[in-house]
Design brief:
Blueprint (H helix, E strand, L loop, with lengths): L2 E9 L8 E7 L5 E4 L2 E4 L5 E10 L3 E9 L11 E6 L3 H20 L2 H10 L7 H23 L1 H10 L9 H23 L9 H22 L5 H18 L1 H11 L7 H24 L4 H4 L3 H23 L15
Antiparallel strand pairs: 1-5, 2-4, 2-6, 3-5, 6-7
Helix pairs in contact: 1-9, 2-5, 3-4, 3-5, 3-7, 6-7, 8-11, 9-11
Length: about 350
C-alpha cells in the first residue's frame, strides 16, 4: 500500500455566511481510502487549506471529486483530482524505461535504410509505394500532434469533449512525427539522385492517395462551414494514418516476393521496427498489470493491434530475408516489370 498527500486550498473574495462541509468522494472506493473524507470550512475563514492523505488499497485509476453542503457559496463542479494507484514503483520505472527505449529505437529505425541507399548508391529494391504511404502517414500524424498540442482553440474543443482528460500528446510524440517526416523526405530525395532501376510509384498507390486526399478535403470543407469541429478534422487525419499503417508494408512485401530477393531493403530497419514494436506492446502490458487496467489494451485495441500487426510484418520480412530469399535470384536487379 502507498500513501499520497494532497493539499486542497480555497480562497474567498467575500466572507462566508455559514460553515461549509466539503465531502471528498472516490470514483472507486475499493482502490483508495481518503483521510479525512470530509472537511469543514468555517465561515470566519478568508482562506482555507487542508492536507488530505490518500491510501492506495489496490491498483487502478481513480477520480476524487467533491460535494459541498452549500454549492451556492462554493462551486466545485469542475474540481477533481486524478489518482493512480500502482502495484509496484519498480514496474512503473521499468515501464518508463521501456517506453524511452522503444521511442529511441523507432526513431533510429529510419537510418539503416538511408545508409543502405548511400552505401549502394542505389534504391533498387526499396518500394516507392511504401515511401509515399509513409510520408503521407507521418505528415498526418505530425499534423494531428502539433494541432492538438499547440492550437488553443483545438485544445479547448478537446477539453470540452473530454473535461477530465489530459491532452494525449507529449513533446516526444511531436518530435517523433516531425523527425519521421524529415528522414522520409531525405530518403525520397535519395530516390532521385541514386540509381533506381526504372522504379516508380504504382497506379494503385496513387489511387489510394487520391482517395485519402478527397476524404480529407471533404472533412476540411465541413469544418470550414462549421458542420464539424477542427478537432474532428485532426481525428480524421489520425484515422487515415492508422489505415496507412495497416497497408504500408504490403507493397514492399509483395515486391520482395516478386523479385525473390530483399536486396535493397534494409534488414536493420526491420530489426529496429520489430524491437520497437515488441517493447511498445510490452509497455502496454506492464502498465495494464501495474494499474490493473486491462481495458487500456482490450477496451481500446487500436494501438495494441497496430503494434502487433507491425510485429507480424517484421517477422515476415525476416523470413523473407534470412530463409526464403537468402540467395537473390536474377530478378533482384530488374524491378521495372513490377511497377
Amino acid at each position: 500500500m502507498k500513501y499520497y498527500n494532497y493539499l486542497f486550498f480555497f480562497g474567498f473574495s467575500t466572507p462566508l455566511s455559514e460553515n461549509i462541509s466539503v465531502k471528498l468522494n472516490a470514483s472507486y472506493g475499493d482502490i483508495i481510502r481518503i483521510d479525512p473524507s470530509e472537511i469543514v470550512i468555517f465561515k470566519e475563514a478568508k482562506t482555507f487549506s487542508a492536507r488530505v492523505q490518500v491510501l492506495g488499497l489496490s491498483p487502478g485509476h481513480v477520480e476524487i471529486t467533491a460535494n459541498v453542503s452549500h454549492p451556492n457559496l462554493l462551486d466545485v463542479t469542475d474540481a477533481y483530482v486524478k489518482v493512480t494507484s500502482e502495484r509496484s514503483s519498480d514496474i512503473a520505472i521499468l515501464s518508463t524505461t521501456v517506453g524511452w527505449i522503444y521511442f529511441v529505437v523507432w526513431s533510429v529505425s529510419f537510418y539503416p535504410q538511408m545508409y543502405e541507399n548511400w552505401k549502394r548508391k542505389s534504391v533498387v529494391g526499396l518500394n516507392f509505394d511504401f515511401l509515399l504511404l509513409n510520408l503521407t502517414g507521418f505528415s498526418l500524424y505530425a499534423l494531428f500532434n502539433c494541432g492538438l498540442y499547440w492550437i488553443p482553440s483545438i485544445k479547448d474543443q478537446y477539453f470540452e469533449r473530454h473535461p477530465h482528460s489530459a491532452i494525449p500528446v507529449l513533446p516526444n510524440d511531436i518530435f517523433f512525427a516531425v523527425h519521421a517526416v524529415v528522414v522520409t523526405l531525405i530518403t525520397i530525395v535519395q530516390c532521385f539522385i541514386y540509381e533506381r532501376g526504372g522504379q516508380s510509384v504504382s497506379i494503385t498507390a496513387r489511387c489510394i492517395q487520391v482517395i485519402f486526399f478527397i476524404f480529407l478535403i471533404i472533412v476540411l470543407l465541413t469544418c470550414v462551414f462549421g458542420v464539424l469541429l477542427w478537432l474532428d478534422f485532426l481525428y480524421c487525419c489520425s484515422y487515415v494514418k492508422l489505415a496507412i499503417t495497416l497497408i504500408k508494408y504490403v507493397p514492399q512485401a509483395f515486391m520482395n516476393y516478386r523479385r525473390k530477393s530483399t536486396t535493397g531493403w534494409s534488414i536493420g530497419n526491420i530489426l529496429c521496427d520489430f524491437t520497437g514494436g515488441v517493447l511498445s506492446v510490452l509497455q502496454m502490458v506492464l502498465d495494464a498489470y501495474n494499474y490493473d487496467d486491462w481495458t487500456s489494451i482490450f477496451g481500446s485495441p487500436t494501438k495494441f493491434g497496430l503494434g502487433f500487426f507491425s510485429i507480424l510484418f517484421d517477422i515476415f520480412f525476416m523470413v523473407q530475408h534470412w530463409i526464403l530469399y537468402r540467395t537473390p535470384s536474377s530478378k533482384a536487379y530488374d524491378v521495372s516489370s513490377y511497377m
